[in-house]
Write a structure and sequence with these properties.
Length: 643
């Protein structure tokens, strides 16, 4: 696991927990991080006919992975996965990483499709989205990246803004600290350095604000709102490391007050905590941890605080952010979460990702920041400041080729929007009559040529959440059988507003606008009446006809015809002609109001041919009885198709 400051502790945990088991020479090499020697011994055991368990095969695969032989690693991972179920989510990620390192992305996609019913929907969506995004990005963003002056031949990582200076972690030699065996470097300590006008980092010295320790002290984070520093340190009492009942030593998160007082915040001898980050806008402390119930190796969590004091249990950010790989180094800027992950769909080992935080505190799909800043190696510990008007600058760590040491700190600046831009939309589809969400509705995002970019089926509660690479123009539609449809086009400015506000759509059931009269399915509007002997559309009539227009707009596939009727007063021929004039007047009004001729069929005036009661010619009736025969019906001809 390539994660600075706690790789050794994670692997030490494995080594200690196996200390009571009888291990082969190959296993001993493996748990001592001597991967080349482990490979040679495992191969010798197989040549000598010794039984190699699946656990040992996976150790061999891990050894190949760590020495860069990804072809051999993927072969073993795939073979074990076929015949056994012991491969965990973390090794599942390594298997796919190995395939990715061999440029077998199409094979990864095919493999994911065969396992889609077993994998989290969020993982599948994240993978599909980032494969598409990285494949369509084209030229990398124009980051100006430089190796800082303050790097050493040892590991330097985890930069943090501290007022007008920079804090960071380093394994450079310190007289007060011993060499830590697994890394070959000094136990990590925290340094402070000056930031020059050009962003370079100069004159690093040990930062003496927090208590001294012989062991690890690293990944600092300065919370300006609190004027306090969070950091991780080895669990120790006085000059002795502390271990749990299984012989495990872990990392804790501590906090130093402005008066120098130190307090442990997150401490569990069986769990390691890493990369603290305090978000003042939510009063949350974010961090990475290797809890057993996580989604992979290490996940990102948060706890609610009261000015930095822990007030809740850790909350996992969930499968939208966390994966079968390792997620570390959370950092929030301008309502976006930046973090690093070694998930298989990235460009290298650890890559830097960005996810937008919504109003409900959930996050959008994490997007890989691309080859402008990510490399084929590990890129992590990203911090940033600035805005789109003045530009952005910051620092991150990487072990990319050309550095001065194991891990180096790099500075960067960029003028433009950070990362490949996306359009993220969240909302709800609701049936207004009952105020209930509509499940099973199809939300479609299309480009201006009508090509489908994304389709999503709403959940049972009517909610949806979609994200696509940014387009300056989009057409969004929502459809479901038996319901009204939604269709609207948006330009760039409208999409930016829509992304902030969300989209809530009301869809009416066809049953809510249809009624049955005279054994026919007709539009359910109120009866309206022309002036006696007249066929002009009055404002009162127009009010009802506008409702017909609105219904057709909601149901674009709706087809209907117009039927008008008179009472028996007056001559039969006169009534026939009058009703036809009225039918034509209604049709003309609807056509002029935007209804298509494809929706509107015939318009027939029946005069007094279809009297509803006994008020026929020569029969005396009261006015209200004659009025029952004065009616207009909008008869639906394709009701069954709409259902």
């Amino acid at each position: 696991m390539k994660i600075k400051t706690f790789i050794p502790f994670f692997l030490l945990t494995i080594m200690v927990s196996h200390a009571q088991e009888k291990m082969s020479k190959a296993d001993q090499y493996f748990y001592s991080y001597a991967y080349k020697e482990a490979i040679a011994e495992y191969q010798k055991d197989m040549r000598d006919g010794k039984l190699i368990t699946n656990h040992q095969f996976l150790n061999l695969a891990d050894s190949y992975f760590r020495t860069g032989d990804y072809k051999s690693a993927s072969r073993i991972y795939l073979d074990v996965n076929k015949k056994d179920t012991i491969i965990d989510s973390h090794r599942f990620n390594k298997m796919l990483q190995s395939l990715s390192k061999n440029s077998e992305k199409e094979r990864i996609k095919a493999f994911l499709n065969t396992k889609s019913d077993l994998l989290a929907n969020e993982l599948m969506e994240n993978a599909e989205f980032n494969f598409e995004l990285l494949g369509a990005t084209g030229d990398a963003q124009k980051f100006e990246i430089f190796n800082i002056n303050g790097n050493s031949p040892q590991g330097d990582f985890s930069p943090s803004f501290y007022k007008d200076k920079l804090l960071f972690s380093s394994g450079r030699p310190v007289k007060s600290k011993k060499i830590y065996g697994p890394s070959g470097e000094s136990y990590y300590d925290i340094y402070i350095a000056r930031i020059g006008q050009n962003g370079d980092v100069l004159n690093p010295n040990i930062f003496d604000r927090m208590p001294n320790t012989k062991f690890h002290k690293s990944t600092p984070h300065y919370a300006q709102e609190l004027d306090k520093i969070f950091y991780i340190l080895s669990n120790a009492e006085d000059d002795r490391l502390s271990f749990d009942d299984n012989g495990k030593n872990s990392m804790a998160i501590g906090m130093v007050y402005d008066n120098g007082f130190f307090a442990f915040l997150l401490r569990d001898l069986s769990t390691s905590f890493y990369y603290p980050f305090y978000d003042g806008s939510s009063d949350r402390l974010y961090f990475a941890a290797n809890f057993e119930d996580g989604y992979g190796g290490t996940d990102i969590y948060y706890v609610s605080t009261n000015n930095g004091q822990i007030m809740s249990e850790p909350v996992n950010l969930g499968p939208r952010i966390n994966s079968p790989g390792n997620e570390i180094a959370p950092f929030i800027h301008d309502n976006s979460l930046y973090f690093s992950s070694d998930i298989f769909y990235g460009l290298g080992g650890m890559d830097i990702y960005k996810a937008n935080r919504r109003q409900d505190q959930t996050f959008s799909i994490p997007i890989n920041l691309g080859s402008g800043i990510n490399s084929a190696k590990d890129d992590f510990g990203f911090i940033i400041r600035g805005d789109e008007n003045l530009g952005f600058s910051g620092y991150f760590s990487s072990n990319r080729d050309g550095g001065k040491g194991n891990d180096d700190i790099y500075g960067f600046s960029i003028r433009e929007y950070l990362g490949p831009r996306t359009f993220s939309l969240k909302g709800e589809i609701v049936e207004p009559k009952y105020q209930q969400g509509i499940g099973g509705a199809t939300l479609s995002l299309r480009d201006t040529e009508g090509n489908i970019l994304k389709e999503y089926t709403t959940q049972s509660n009517g909610k949806f959440q979609v994200e696509i690479p940014w387009k300056d123009n989009l057409v969004i539609s929502v459809t479901k059988n038996g319901h009204s449809s939604f269709y609207s086009s948006y330009n760039k400015a409208q999409l930016e507003e829509l992304q902030k506000a969300g989209l809530n759509v009301e869809m009416v059931s066809i049953d809510d606008i249809v009624t049955e009269r005279e054994n026919k399915k007709v539009l359910g509007i109120k009866d309206f009446f022309f002036a006696r002997g007249k066929s002009e559309v009055t404002p009162e009539i127009a009010l009802e006809l506008d409702k017909v227009v609105a219904m057709v707009q909601k149901f674009p596939q709706l087809k209907f015809q117009i039927e008008t009727h008179t009472d028996s007063r007056g001559g039969s021929r006169t009534n026939k002609v009058l009703s036809q004039r009225r039918a034509d007047a209604i049709k003309n009004y609807l056509l002029q109001s935007g209804i298509s001729s494809a929706n509107l069929g015939s318009a027939v005036g029946y005069g007094e041919e279809q009297i509803m009661n006994s008020c026929s010619n020569g029969v005396y009736c009261l006015d209200f009885l004659h009025k029952q025969n004065l009616r207009t019906l909008f008869v639906i001809s394709n009701f069954d198709e709409l259902k």
